[in-house]
């Protein structure tokens, strides 16, 4: 789905151009789940906006769904393949009801009305909003608005959805809700790039990419990152309670592949 090699990006800052991404090389296959993390200002948002065709690479190569992003004519097409769910659930709705919001993208594609109505109802059912199809969008909770944003991505038949810290403004129940929906989509074949700074969400991801100062610092599995790398301590991360217990076990000689990452894993060990 994503192939980037030595990708660079610089943005105008006054009269000068400021380097934002420096030599990023990453491959994300179709159907993968990758968690992307890093401190504020490290370049995460610039990278995903480049993947989505909103930023134009300054150098290197980037292909998305087989389309070369160095060619201007491909950038609009990429937006259909790669969709974004933003951090703020109130900043991504255009319709007054969930039905109208999903209809907006389908109408722009010129879909037959009878087919469009059937598809809208299917999508609302899929994201758990069928009972609120005609509700005022302003009456939806933050989690419901994020579900609606996911529905709009599905309406455009996106092969990849980027969740840009989509749970950061939600309560714990809302976070679990959106994370669960994203996992359902992933299991059905959607490629997911999950941007987060939450340690528990990173620990549950099969693959983690860590950014710092516009560079890719790590790309691999979570167990190696948390137990066999100095990077979390170097970056000043506060380990989760599960990882803190795992490090105690590690010092007692437990092998790497048995160290826990999640609460269910720790519970099973106990």
From TrEMBL:
Stretches assigned to the ABC transporter domain: 2-238
GO MF, one example: ATP hydrolysis activity
Principal location: membrane
PROSITE patterns: ABC_TRANSPORTER_1, ABC_TRANSPORTER_2
Pfam families associated with the record: ABC_tran
UniProt record similarity statement: Belongs to the ABC transporter superfamily.
Subcellular localization(s) per the UniProt record: Cell membrane
Sorted UniProt keywords: ATP-binding, Cell membrane, Membrane, Nucleotide-binding, Translocase, Transport
InterPro entries tied to this protein: AAA+_ATPase, ABC_transporter-like_ATP-bd, ABC_transporter-like_CS, ABC_transpr_CbiO/EcfA_su, ECF_ABC_transporter_ATP-bd, P-loop_NTPase
Membrane topology: Peripheral membrane protein
Native species: Paenibacillus borealis
Gene Ontology cellular-component annotations: ATP-binding cassette (ABC) transporter complex
Lineage: superkingdom: Bacteria
Keyword Hydrolase assigned: no
Keyword Ligase (UniProt): no
Stated name of the protein: ABC transporter domain-containing protein
